[in-house]
Amino acid sequence: MSQNTQAAAAAKSKFSVRDICYAGLFAAVIAVMAQISIPMPLGVPMTMQTFAITLAAVVLGSKLSAIASLVYLALGAVGVPVLANFSGGFDKFVGPTGGFLISFPLMAYIIGLGVEHRDAFKGAFVTAVIVGTVVNYVVGVAMFVVVAHSTVAVGITACVLPFIPTAIIKAVLACAIGLNLRKRIPGLKA
Q: Keywords of this protein's UniProt record, alphabetized (predicted)?
C-alpha cells in the first residue's frame, strides 16, 4: 500500500471536528427526547428515545449515530440525568429496561447502514429500520425477562405490544425528518 493510499485510508477513519460536533449535538437531542416519557402499567415507559436514535441514524449514518448514542449512554451511566425522567446511573442499565438502552448503539448502527446503502440496494433503508427496531425490542425483552424473572410472553406483553403503533409512527416521522435534514446539513452525503 502506498503512502498516499495509507494517508487516504487514515483520513477516512478519523472523525473531523464537524463530525464530533454532530455526534455531540445528537447525543443532546437524544437526552432531550428521552424526557418525553409516558409511564406504562408494566413499568416500561413510552419515550421518544427510539425516535431520537432513529433520527440520529438517518441524519448521521452508521458510525456517527452509534457514537452519538454511546456518548448519551456514557453520560447516563456516570449519573448525568439524561435518561428518561431525568434519571441517570449505572443501575438503569442493569434494571428491567436496561436492554433497550444498551441496544441503542447497535440500533443506530444498523439503521445508519441502511441509509448509507439506500441507493445501492433497494429496500435497504426500510429493512434496516425494521431490523434495528427489532434488535432494540429483542435485547430489551431479553433483559426484561432476566431481570424481572418473567416469561417471554410477559416480556412481549409489557415491552413490545403496547409500543408497536407508536414505534411505526416514530420510525416514519424520524425517517421523513431525518432524510430532509440530511440533505441540508453541510458535510453529510445526501
A: Cell membrane, Membrane, Transmembrane, Transmembrane helix, Transport
**How many C-beta atoms lie closer than 10 Å to residue 153's C-beta?**
9
**3 lies in a domain?**
no
Q: How far is 77 from 72, CA to CA, in rounded Å?
A: 9
* pTM of the predicted structure, to 2 decimals: 0.89
Dihedral of the alpha carbons of 95, 100, 101, 107, in degrees to the nearest 10? 160
Residue 81, domain member (yes or no)? yes
Q: How far is 88 from 86, CA to CA, in rounded Å? A: 7
Contact 23, 67 (CB under 8 A): yes
3-state class (DSSP) for residue 46? strand
Cβ neighbours of residue 165 closer than 8 Å, sequence gap 6 or more: none
Q: Give 8's contacts (C-beta < 8 A, 6+ positions apart).
A: none
Counting the structural domains of the chain, the total is 1
Q: The domain containing residue 106 runs over which residues?
A: 18-184
30 or 2, which is more confident? 30
CATH number of the domain enclosing 51: 1.10.1760.20
Q: What is the mean pLDDT of the chain?
A: 91
Q: Is residue 7 over pLDDT 90?
A: no
CA 176 to chain centre: 16
